[in-house]
């Protein structure tokens, strides 16, 4: 996949990204072309689909590697692929660029490590539902207009309904409180991922930031997941499965999301990620046999409606910003 080049930035631009409200976080292509929110929708849709099907596949690794070991294999193998493709030239990177990319890597490690740990205790749709509260809270914090807040409230209602439907339709045993806590920690790292990824995408061109950031994330997880990951090394079946997870849940989605971050404001990007619970429900049903109730399906429709509405609203507010 080819990602667009980042905009020509002034020397101050990496620092200016720190303020979520001071810039249109998703800068457009070089040359002043206006970003297209519709493109961001397609990119995020592809990212969420790939990620959730990769997560469903990863659960098959847990008996061999454990949750953290599976996360380490996923990020490590994904980093190797991206480093081979992008061949980042890091010699000329500034301290600001390194700091942005390392923070991005730490957010990747925390978001994915805690998410997979939650996934070992919760159904796929429930884990994503609670995890999504991170970007949803970030969208609310970055929103300025009542109309943006309306879409966020609609998405929140859909997410909460989906979580309740999963709880009452998943066997009557309730949700594991430790799993919920792990998913909420992952949610906090997901919000950090949106902010750090937006900053890194502005500071470093192309896929270099994704490749180096994923490498940093794997190194963060190495002390915690090395033993579990070692159980898969040398075994063709688990390693082939791990490679598939790395491609579906790391290489493809983070490349697509990185491109989407350049095309949509951070508050819109956060609400667009509300597609994740819907696609997690689909992946859980197709790959893991986790059935959803009619109430859950209705909640999915509400979440998608909020995503589409937020994107249509974003298009109206882009034009003045582009001419500023």
Describe the structure.
The protein is mostly helical. It has one domain. It has 13 helices and no strands. Helix 7 packs antiparallel against helix 13 (294-323). The protein starts with 12 loop residues before the first helix and ends with a helix.
State mean pLDDT (0 to 100 scale). 76
- Could you describe the largest sheet, including whether it forms a barrel? none
Radius of gyration: 19 Å
| SSE sequence, one letter per element | HHHHHHHHHHHHH
Structural class: mainly alpha
Kindly summarize this structure in a few lines.
The chain has helices at residues 13-16, 37-58, 62-86, 95-119, 124-131, 133-142, 146-169, 177-203, 208-230, 236-261, 266-272, 275-288, 294-323. It is globular, with a radius of gyration of 19 Å.
Write the layout of secondary structure elements.
Elements: H1 13-16, H2 37-58, H3 62-86, H4 95-119, H5 124-131, H6 133-142, H7 146-169, H8 177-203, H9 208-230, H10 236-261, H11 266-272, H12 275-288, H13 294-323
Keywords:
mainly alpha, 0% strand, disordered N terminus, disordered C terminus, single chain, 324 residues
């Amino acid at each position: 996949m080819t990602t667009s080049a980042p905009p020509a930035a002034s020397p101050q631009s990496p620092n200016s990204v720190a303020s979520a409200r001071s810039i249109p976080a998703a800068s457009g292509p070089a040359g002043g072309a206006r970003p297209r929110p519709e493109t961001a929708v397609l990119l995020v849709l592809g990212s969420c689909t790939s990620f959730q099907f990769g997560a469903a596949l990863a659960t098959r690794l847990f008996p061999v590697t454990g949750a953290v070991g599976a996360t380490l294999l996923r990020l490590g193998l994904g980093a190797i692929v991206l480093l081979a493709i992008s061949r980042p030239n890091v010699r000329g990177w500034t301290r600001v660029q390194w700091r942005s990319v390392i923070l991005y890597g730490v957010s990747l490690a925390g978001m994915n490590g805690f998410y997979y740990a939650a996934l070992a205790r919760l159904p796929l749709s429930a884990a994503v539902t609670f995890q999504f509260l991170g970007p949803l809270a970030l969208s609310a914090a970055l929103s300025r207009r009542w109309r943006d807040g309306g879409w966020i409230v609609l998405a929140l209602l859909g997410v909460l309904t989906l979580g309740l439907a999963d709880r009452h339709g998943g066997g009557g045993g309730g949700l594991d409180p430790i799993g919920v806590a792990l998913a909420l920690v992952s949610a906090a790292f997901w919000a950090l991922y949106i902010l750090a990824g937006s900053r890194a995408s502005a500071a470093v061109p192309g896929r270099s930031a994704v490749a180096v950031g994923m490498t940093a994330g794997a190194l963060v997880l190495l002390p915690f997941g090395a033993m579990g990951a070692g159980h898969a090394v040398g075994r063709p079946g688990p390693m082939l499965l791990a490679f598939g997870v790395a491609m579906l849940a790391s290489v493809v989605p983070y490349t697509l999301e990185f491109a989407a971050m350049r095309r949509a404001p951070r508050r819109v990007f956060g609400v667009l990620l509300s597609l994740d619970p819907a696609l997690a429900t689909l992946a859980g049903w197709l790959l893991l046999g986790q059935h959803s109730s009619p109430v859950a399906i209705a909640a999915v429709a509400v979440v998608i409606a909020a995503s589409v509405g937020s994107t249509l609203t974003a298009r109206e507010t882009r034009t003045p910003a582009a001419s500023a």
